[in-house]
Design goal:
The complex is a heterodimer of chains A (414) and B (278).
Chain A: H1 2-28, H2 39-49, E1 60-63, H3 70-75, E2 79-82, H4 88-94, H5 104-115, E3 124-131, H6 134-143, E4 149-153, H7 160-181, H8 187-212, H9 220-230, H10 235-251, E5 265-270, H11 279-286, E6 290-294, H12 314-326, H13 338-351, E7 355-361, H14 365-381, E8 385-390, H15 397-413
Chain B: H1 7-29, E1 33-38, E2 51-53, H2 55-59, H3 61-64, H4 70-87, H5 90-94, H6 97-111, H7 124-140, H8 144-147, H9 149-157, H10 166-181, H11 191-198, E3 205-209, H12 219-223, H13 230-233, H14 250-254, E4 261-265, E5 268-272
Parallel strand pairs in B: 1-2
Antiparallel strand pairs in B: 3-4, 4-5
Helix pairs in contact in B: 1-6, 6-10, 7-11, 9-10
The chains are: A alpha/beta (414), B mainly alpha (278).
Chain lengths: 414, 278
C-alpha cells in the first residue's frame, strides 16, 4: 500500500518539478531586450529540470554552498555541481525532513535528494557541505542518509586566525577527496583546474560588465539564468559558451522601444536567487525596471572573485583558494558586515543604480539581521531600499507584483 | 590567474643592475664613488664594489672620525640621510643586492613549487623586537660586522674571503635557508631598512588605498613579502605606506579591483590596480 502511495507521490513531485521549471524557463525570454541567443544555457537547465536527463557522463561531486572550493573537485577529474535547491516542489518535499521555519534553500536541497527524481543529482560520489550557516550544518546530517557527505567548517571571522584555520581545513578537504576518489592531488593538476575555472570567472565578469553598462543588451533575468546554468555544467565548457555569448553581445543591437523615460536601474541584494526562483527579477524587468547587478551567491557573486596565488606550489594555490572563497565573501554569516556595505556602495557607484531590492528568503535569518543596517546605510547614501520577504512558492505572486510596481513607479518619479 | 608585467620586470632589472654594480662596479670603473653611501646592505669591506653602503661608516665611526676621510664620510652620511628622508625604503625593493639574493632564492623555491614557510602568528610580534635590537646594535657598532650575515654572503659572491667567525657563518646560512622558504625574511629585521622605514610615513613614495573599492580578497596580503596586514585590513585610511613597506608593488599588481590600490611618487600616480580581463 505504502509503496503505491510513494510511487504516486513521486509521480506528482515529478509533474510539479517539470511544470514549475518549464514555466520559469518560458518566462526568461520574455525579459529579453535584444535578439541575443542564450539557448545553450536555457537548454542545459531544460534538459535537467524538464527533460529530466543527465547528459553529464563524467563522475560528479556536489557542493552545497558558494564557499566550497570547486577547483579541488575539478582538479581530481570530477565535475563539480552546485546543488543548492531553489525549487518550490523540492521545498515541499523537504518539509518532511526539515522544520517548517528553516530556510527554503535548505528545505529544497534536502528535498531534491529525498525525492530522487532528478537524474543529474543521482550517482554523486560525495557532496561537500560548508557549515556556513546553521541551516547548512543541520542539512548535512539529513543529507547523509542519501549521499556521502564531506562537511567542512567555515569560521565565523575572516581575521588571520580564521584564515589559517581555513587553510588547514582545505588541506583536510583535499585529503578526504583524495581518499574518496582514489586520485592524487598535485600542484600541476590544481593549477590546470584554477586556470580553467578562472576562464569561466573572467567571462562571467565580462558578462556582468555588459549588464552594468548604460545600454544593456541582455536582461538581468537572462544573465542570472546563464549564471544558474553554471551550477550544473562543466566549467570549461560553460566558459567557452559564455565567451561566444559575450562576443555576440558586443555586436547585437537592442530591440526598439517605445519608452520615453529611462528605465530605473535596480540592484538585487540579499539572499541567493537561483533557477527556477526567478520571480523577482522577472517581475522587475517585465514591470519596466532594469536589473544592473545582483549580489546573489548563485549568480553575481558566484564567480566574481578571481584566484590569485602568490606562486603555483600546492601550498600557494590552497592559500589563494582559501582567500578567494572566504575572505571577500559578502555572506552575512560572518561577524564582519563592513564587506557587504563596501561592496554595495561600490556596485551602486559603478552601476549608477536608482534603487535596491533587498531579497530575504523566509527563514534566512542572517540576511534579515542586516536589513536594519542596510536601511540606515541606504538612507545615508540616498538610495531607496525595498525589503522583499518571500520563498520559492508562487502564492505571493500578485501582492509581490503590486509592491514591486509601486517601488518602480516611485523610482521613476524621483 | 595572475600575470606579472611592467613594474616587476623593471624591478628585477633594477635589482640585477645594482647587484652587478654594487658587487663588481669598482672592478670596471677603477675606483669607488666615495661620497655616496646607499641605504642598503652591500658589503663595504669589498674593494670591488662601485659604491659603499652606509653600514661600515656607521659601525666603525672611529675609523674616519677626525681622520683624513672625515669629509667624504660626512658627505656620505648626508647623502644617506637625504635619500631615506626623500624615498624611505624605496631602495630596499629596487637597489639592495642582499634583497636581490633573497628574492632570487625564493623565486627558485617558487619555480620548484615548494611550499613557503609562513611565520606563525604568535612569533610575528617578536620580529619587531629583534629588528630594534638590531638597530641598537648597529648604531652602537658593537661587533656588528663580525656577526653580520650579509657580509658572509656578499663578500664570497664578490670573490673575496669573508672571514671565518663560526657564529657569523652559521647566522648567514640560517638566514639564507629561511630566505629560501620565506621571501625577504632578513628585510624584516634589517637595521638599515628599519632606519629608512621611519621616513616611510613622510617620504615621496606613497601606497594609496581606496577603501570602498576593496573587497577584502586578501590577495595583496598573500603576495606581500613583508606581510603588512594593514594593506588588507585597513579601509578607513587612504595612505597605507607602512614602516615595513619596501615598495615592491606586488599588492598593486595583483589587486583585482579597479583603482583600489595605487602608487604615488611625488604626488603623481604611477601605478593603479586593475582587473586582468584576459
Amino acid at each position: 500500500m505504502s509503496e503505491i502511495y510513494e510511487e504516486r507521490q513521486r509521480e506528482r513531485y515529478k509533474r510539479n518539478v517539470v511544470k514549475m521549471a518549464g514555466s520559469s524557463l518560458s518566462q526568461i525570454d520574455e525579459t529579453a531586450v535584444s535578439p541575443v541567443d542564450i539557448s545553450y544555457f536555457i537548454g542545459r537547465l531544460e534538459s535537467i529540470f524538464v527533460g529530466l536527463e543527465d547528459k553529464e557522463n563524467n563522475a560528479k561531486i556536489g557542493m552545497y554552498c558558494a564557499m566550497a572550493p570547486e577547483e579541488f573537485v575539478y582538479a581530481l577529474g570530477f565535475t563539480p555541481l552546485k546543488l543548492c535547491g531553489n525549487h518550490p516542489t523540492a521545498t515541499l518535499a523537504g518539509e518532511d525532513h526539515a522544520p517548517r521555519d528553516s530556510c527554503p534553500v535548505v528545505k529544497a536541497s534536502v528535498g531534491f535528494q529525498s525525492m530522487n527524481i532528478i537524474p543529474m543529482f543521482d550517482n554523486l560520489k560525495a557532496v561537500i557541505i560548508p557549515g556556513s550557516c546553521d541551516g547548512k550544518k543541520k542539512a548535512a546530517e539529513i543529507l547523509s542518509q542519501y549521499v556521502p557527505i564531506i562537511p567542512i567548517p567555515i569560521y565565523m571571522s575572516k581575521d588571520d586566525d580564521g584564515f589559517e584555520l581555513l587553510v588547514e581545513t582545505y588541506y583536510g578537504l583535499i585529503a578526504t577527496l583524495e581518499h574518496i576518489t582514489g586520485r592524487k592531488m598535485t600542484a600541476s593538476r590544481l593549477k590546470k583546474a584554477c586556470v580553467e575555472i578562472s576562464r569561466a570567472s573572467k567571462e562571467a565578469y565580462k558578462l556582468y560588465e555588459y549588464l552594468k553598462s548604460d545600454k544593456a543588451v541582455i536582461s538581468g533575468t537572462q544573465v542570472m539564468s546563464v549564471m544558474s546554468s553554471y551550477a550544473y555544467d562543466d566549467p570549461g565548457r560553460w566558459a567557452t559558451e559564455v565567451k561566444k555569448l559575450n562576443k555576440a553581445l558586443a555586436k547585437v543591437q537592442p530591440n526598439s522601444s517605445k519608452r520615453k523615460r529611462k528605465k530605473p536601474r535596480i540592484i538585487i541584494a540579499g539572499s541567493p536567487i537561483g533557477f527556477p526562483h526567478f520571480k523577482i527579477p522577472y517581475l522587475l524587468e517585465t514591470l519596466g525596471a532594469q536589473i544592473v547587478t545582483d549580489e546573489s551567491c548563485l549568480a553575481g557573486r558566484l564567480l566574481y572573485d578571481p584566484v590569485l596565488p602568490d606562486n603555483y606550489s600546492l601550498d600557494g594555490m590552497v592559500r589563494a583558494l582559501a582567500a578567494r572563497y572566504v575572505a571577500p565573501c559578502t555572506c552575512p554569516t560572518f561577524i564582519e558586515m563592513e564587506d557587504r556595505f563596501c561592496r554595495l556602495e561600490q556596485e551602486k557607484d559603478i552601476t549608477n543604480a536608482d534603487g535596491i531590492i533587498y531579497h530575504v528568503l523566509r527563514g534566512c535569518i542572517p540576511y534579515d539581521f542586516e536589513l536594519l543596517y542596510i536601511e540606515k546605510w541606504a538612507e545615508k547614501h540616498g538610495i531607496p531600499v525595498l525589503r522583499v520577504e518571500t520563498d520559492f512558492s508562487t502564492e505571493d505572486y500578485e501582492p509581490l507584483k503590486i509592491r514591486l510596481e509601486a517601488f518602480i513607479e516611485m523610482l521613476e518619479r524621483r | 590567474m595572475m600575470k606579472r608585467k611592467g613594474i616587476t620586470i623593471f624591478r628585477w632589472a633594477a635589482l640585477m643592475v645594482s647587484f652587478i654594480f654594487l658587487l663588481y662596479g669598482a672592478n670596471f670603473m677603477g675606483s669607488k664613488i666615495n661620497w655616496v653611501k646607499l641605504p642598503v646592505f652591500s658589503c663595504a669591506l669589498s674593494p670591488s664594489g662601485g659604491v659603499d653602503s652606509i653600514c661600515k661608516t656607521i659601525v666603525d665611526v672611529e675609523e674616519w672620525f677626525l681622520g683624513i676621510n672625515m669629509i667624504p664620510s660626512l658627505i656620505g652620511i648626508g647623502v644617506f640621510l637625504l635619500l631615506i628622508i626623500l624615498f624611505g625604503r624605496l631602495f630596499c625593493g629596487y637597489v639592495c643586492p642582499f634583497g636581490f639574493v633573497q628574492e632570487l632564492l625564493s623565486s627558485v623555491r617558487k619555480k620548484l613549487r615548494l611550499p613557503s614557510f609562513k611565520i606563525p602568528l604568535k612569533v610575528k610580534p617578536y620580529f619587531t623586537t629583534v629588528k630594534w635590537i638590531m638597530v641598537i646594535g648597529f648604531l652602537l657598532g658593537i661587533g656588528y660586522c663580525d656577526l653580520c650575515p650579509v657580509r658572509y654572503v656578499m663578500l664570497p659572491l664578490a670573490g673575496m674571503v669573508s672571514g671565518s667567525d663560526f657564529i657569523g657563518i652559521f647566522l648567514a646560512a640560517l638566514i639564507l635557508g629561511l630566505a629560501f622558504f620565506n621571501e625577504r625574511i632578513f628585510c624584516r629585521i634589517c637595521p638599515i631598512g628599519a632606519l629608512a622605514g621611519i621616513f616611510n610615513s613622510r617620504s615621496l613614495a606613497r601606497i594609496k588605498k581606496k577603501g570602498v573599492a576593496c573587497t577584502h580578497c586578501r590577495a595583496c596580503l598573500e603576495v606581500c613579502p613583508m606581510e603588512i596586514k594593514e594593506i588588507y585590513e585597513e579601509r578607513e585610511k587612504t595612505d597605507l605606506t607602512k614602516q615595513e613597506c619596501i615598495y615592491c608593488m606586488k599588492c598593486i599588481e595583483i589587486c583585482p579591483e579597479e583603482t583600489a590600490l595605487s602608487f604615488e611618487l611625488c604626488k603623481k600616480n604611477i601605478l593603479v590596480s586593475k582587473r586582468h580581463r584576459r
